[in-house]
Amino acid sequence: MTTLPAFRVEGPVGAPAVVLSNSLGTSWSLWDPQLAALTGRFLVVRYEHPGHGGSAVGDALPGSIADLVPSGAGPEAGD
Questions:
Q1: Residue 64 and residue 72: Cα distance in Å, rounded?
Q2: Which of 13, 31, 41, 59 is the most exposed place for a label (fewest CB within 10 A)?
Q3: What's the burial of 53, exposed, middle or buried (CB within 10 Å: 0-12/13-18/19+)?
Q4: Global pTM?
Q5: Residue 53: left (phi > 0), alpha (psi -120 to 50), or beta?
């Protein structure tokens, strides 16, 4: 069974939508300072990545942060 990430929808229904995603290690509160400016004109959708804020880890995350980096992308790739 797939678990949906935690999300919030704020702003006027029917307005153009803006989707805000937080960066690794943060939560949707990262966008709090921008909400007042955006929710008057846009339907703002914010969500939490798996394992962040209110979202469960589930099966979506690999075992470690290092597993998120594609192979060959690290500093040792040029060695």
A1: 16
A2: 13
A3: middle
A4: 0.61
A5: left
